[in-house]
Amino acid sequence: MKKIIPLFVLVLLGVLGLVFPSIDLSALDKAEFDTGDTAWLLTSSALVLIMTPGLAFFYGGMVSKKNVISTMMQSFICMCLMTILWVIVGFSLAFGDDIGGIIGDPRTFFMMKGTLGNVAWGALPTIPLVLFAMFQLKFAIITPALITGAFAERIRFNSYMLFIILFGVFIYMPLAHATWHPEGILAKFGVLDFAGGTVVHMSAGWAALAAAIYLKGRKSQTHNPARISYVILGTALLWFGWFGFNAGSAGGANSLAAYAFATTTTASAMAAMAWIFVDIIRGKKPSAMGACIGAVVGLVAITPAAGFVSIPHAMVIGLVAALISNLVVYLRSKTSIDDTLDVFPCHGVGGMVGMVLTGVFAHHNVNPLVVDNGLFFGETKLFFVHTVALFAVSFFAFVGSLVLLKVTDLISPLRVEETDEELGLDVSQHAEAL
Fold it and tell me: Membrane-crossing residues (predicted)?
């Protein structure tokens, strides 16, 4: 009977599509879409989507050979589940009419109501509303996928699917609303998050730490990465897609998009080199794995700052993020916390470093949305706002994720059986193998 329930729920969701076809036209009198902006956001949406398969290769190459398919599948399934959730109610929860600054009204865009026709999101009047919705969907897809590296090689696939749905509804979408909706509590407080350092990377990083603690360690924590070439390919796809992630967040084909493009690649390059040089100081050889991890840390750290800081300061952000994340990876290895692929030290810490340094280096000349310049320029308000928000978001994401992990575990056990873990999740969860 339990096996029937998921399909039954999916059929009910299909019935919703018949009951709520959302074919009513909406229109704005003065909406004039720009073909260049629209083309760039369509391209950016595709670029951000390719990041999730890129992440699948990035994580898949790092795990044991017997867990490659399961690890990659955990990323791939996010593209399916989160899309369905987003279309039905997720976009409304993130960007619907404000409820208390913390969540959107689920009725606003229920089943994508009101997105057909000549209508736009208020802050981006030159692109169709449905394009804005699809662009934001890609962020909602990759965020739970980032978490998977923390509990790789030991989680039941069915339970994982339930957890990412709960995470999307109760962690990601409230944070997206609070940060990116004009009436959101963090937005009104003055938090600047250009492309998701807070919403995406901090939420995923803290959820990853919570999951690593809750699920405890693997029975065997020694393994060789299955395919370093997968890691390199995944990093290349992530770096490529990140231009849509950050430059696309400018909202159009404009000078700010070009500048965010430049800060993104600069920070990543700096972080990759810093990671390699730190490894050399520790007596290691310069490795492809280290270069790839460093590059991703730089991309993570520049995400909240990409459209708010100068290119030279992007270099500083990449450097600082790599040094701190590398140190946290080392310190984590001395503990009993089994964050399999160091998601918290790289994504969580990288996101926090980026958030703090946005409060240090943001400047009005880069982006007029910066009302108060960063600490580096002698002003303290933005830095204070970001520091307070960092603690608030960290507490919400970590504690909230622990609660959701417990709820999921009560409904469907999270941890695989010991024999299944030893056999490998590719075979035990999917009956497939490399």
Answer: 45-64, 76-96, 116-137, 157-175, 195-215, 227-245, 257-278, 290-308, 314-331, 343-363, 383-405
